[in-house]
Amino acid sequence: MRYKKVPKTDMEVSAVSLGTWAIGGRDWGKADDKESISTIQAAADFGINFIDTAPIYGRGHSEEIIGKAIKGIRSKFYIATKCGIQPEGKGFTFNLKPEAIAKELEDSLKRLGIETIDIYQCHYPDPHTPIEDTLGQLLKFKKQGKVRYIGVSNFDLSLLEKASSITAITTLQVQYSLLDRSIEKGVLSFCSENDIGVIAYGPLGGGILTGKYINPPRFPKGDARSFFYPYYKEPYWSKIQVLIGEIKNIARKRNKNPAEVALNWVNQQEGIAVTIAGCRNYEQLSANASAGSWELSLDELERLRKISDGLELER
Questions:
Q1: Is 232 a catalytic residue?
Q2: Which among 218, 243, 242 is positioned nearest to 232, based on CA atoms?
Q3: Of 3, 57, 124, 176, catalytic
Q4: Domain extents for the chain?
């Protein structure tokens, strides 16, 4: 497994890290808790040392499962979780008010069974709460030793600039893949210039870049692949088949699986500190983790970039 240093920290993070939205169930269909626990524990055997989660994943269930899985092996993992998205009826609301995230933090620590969160992130912007108030509360958590580093997620460039002017922002978590490269329009360069590590989520485009789907699948209405990732529907589906074809071609020549190719393209981009790959079983974990043992050539990186450029996908 290859490792990268997250800027301004003491953390050396595995090239492939573990995303846990799916194991929370709910938004990705049912998950087998025993299988999820064994998968998380097996991640350490592959050299994976970073786990990302959030209270909203399964409405706390993802954190609970992680807590059970890392009991006794906490030192093997860096744990990142989030705050600011809270359940409301069948939906959710954005809430980064100090009193709200104070409760969220305590709930997360309890579910995870830990005393300190390595990176605590604002999950989404809250337009009704001044960012100064939110960051002030996060700094209190840090002073109390409950949080080591402060991160943000899904912040646009202007809000990231404002947050960075208030306090040191360690990481920005944002969607990035061959299908969504919007952060290349200013965000990525700002992060590089200011030593903010980028945590890339969605590098497999919600699973479509694994190449396992021959025809457009139909997911239940509540499945994240039916509302969060648009790629399984037209006009996206037809447009990206040429890209998937090239990913499969490179994988075949390298004797690798397509997921490894897609993950390595993201991981090898300048400024990317952490690449999160979600999985729900050992087979998927193994396929993702294998990407940490090799790299794409410059020619392969450029070929994939050119095809991605030609897709002209709009998000």
A1: no
A2: 218
A3: 57
A4: 3-311
